[in-house]
């Protein structure tokens, strides 16, 4: 997509590198989550649970490809919706004796007594406001800047399907958010903190506490569905980045002799590497996901804006902005971790990325303006016809 819009084959390689770093981080986080859940369900070690989760998801993603991912996502999505609703009802009943529609009011009252910091925007000073703003920005634009989301959008049959998907996705996401977040907050009232080894273990322990074994199994299946759905999509996109965007450029003759085999080999290699990192992950799931999402979002959001909204965006702007972002965010985050600065690398990336992209676009021109004009006209025509 970026190559066609900006006319630079090197953008495929840059995009592939960014995808591997960003989505690789997301895969590590999801593998860690699957290891925590499987170990909790079967009473095994984290490593055993991790191996089980990686084998299950890795096999059907590598063998089945994108078609398998789409169908499993549909089934897993249905399981997720019912599972999180059951969890919310059971959690409210355990916390207050019965399910009540005003549980949010009572939850806030109880938390104000036992854990007032949970009701403060900054967690009682635990998180800087600028970081909260950065997280909010990432959440708002993640849908248009994540490569796996773009693949799903452009795989749709027509605009009618796309419009329906927007409504379904909004309702689906709302159900998950308004069931899982209150459930996790109520867990603070139900669980003894000494029994929870880390924040990643809250959901498995809470589920087994508030539900009988059979129902707990169903809810844990819902949580695993969320993980597996995410992981399968990440594997397919990351593998495509290696095989199609790197192999197809570096060794096109070798790749085209058996593209399916190379795609599967790339998927297997990515699964193996992320599995090795997940054995001893660097942080809790939330921070891994946040960095991975932020890295990917701030690398791709401005180039994607140039694809659909801004005709003056140039290839040089995309190239320089992507390279700077991919170097700046990890380097600055390393300084933050070392205590040299208190500002997150994601915050710096959020500020620098749009400024750099806009300034360079305004001072440079596209190499082939005619190609850009024709693509832009085709886009406008498609937009007009779809709105009729």
UniProtKB/TrEMBL annotation:
<keyword id="KW-0739">Sodium transport</keyword>
<feature type="transmembrane region" description="Helical">
    <location>
        <begin position="166"/>
        <end position="191"/>
    </location>
</feature>
<keyword id="KW-0472">Membrane</keyword>
<dbReference type="InterPro" id="IPR050277">
    <property type="entry name" value="Sodium:Solute_Symporter"/>
</dbReference>
<keyword id="KW-0406">Ion transport</keyword>
<feature type="transmembrane region" description="Helical">
    <location>
        <begin position="37"/>
        <end position="62"/>
    </location>
</feature>
<feature type="transmembrane region" description="Helical">
    <location>
        <begin position="340"/>
        <end position="360"/>
    </location>
</feature>
<comment type="similarity">
    <text>Belongs to the sodium:solute symporter (SSF) (TC 2.A.21) family.</text>
</comment>
<protein>
    <submittedName>
        <fullName>Uncharacterized protein</fullName>
    </submittedName>
</protein>
<keyword id="KW-0812">Transmembrane</keyword>
<feature type="transmembrane region" description="Helical">
    <location>
        <begin position="126"/>
        <end position="145"/>
    </location>
</feature>
<dbReference type="Pfam" id="PF00474">
    <property type="entry name" value="SSF"/>
</dbReference>
<keyword id="KW-1133">Transmembrane helix</keyword>
<keyword id="KW-0813">Transport</keyword>
<dbReference type="GO" id="GO:0006814">
    <property type="term" value="P:sodium ion transport"/>
</dbReference>
<dbReference type="GO" id="GO:0005886">
    <property type="term" value="C:plasma membrane"/>
</dbReference>
<feature type="transmembrane region" description="Helical">
    <location>
        <begin position="285"/>
        <end position="310"/>
    </location>
</feature>
<feature type="transmembrane region" description="Helical">
    <location>
        <begin position="317"/>
        <end position="334"/>
    </location>
</feature>
<keyword id="KW-0915">Sodium</keyword>
<feature type="transmembrane region" description="Helical">
    <location>
        <begin position="12"/>
        <end position="31"/>
    </location>
</feature>
<dbReference type="GO" id="GO:0015293">
    <property type="term" value="F:symporter activity"/>
</dbReference>
<keyword id="KW-1003">Cell membrane</keyword>
<feature type="transmembrane region" description="Helical">
    <location>
        <begin position="260"/>
        <end position="279"/>
    </location>
</feature>
<keyword id="KW-0769">Symport</keyword>
<dbReference type="InterPro" id="IPR001734">
    <property type="entry name" value="Na/solute_symporter"/>
</dbReference>
<feature type="transmembrane region" description="Helical">
    <location>
        <begin position="211"/>
        <end position="239"/>
    </location>
</feature>
<feature type="transmembrane region" description="Helical">
    <location>
        <begin position="74"/>
        <end position="96"/>
    </location>
</feature>
<dbReference type="InterPro" id="IPR038377">
    <property type="entry name" value="Na/Glc_symporter_sf"/>
</dbReference>
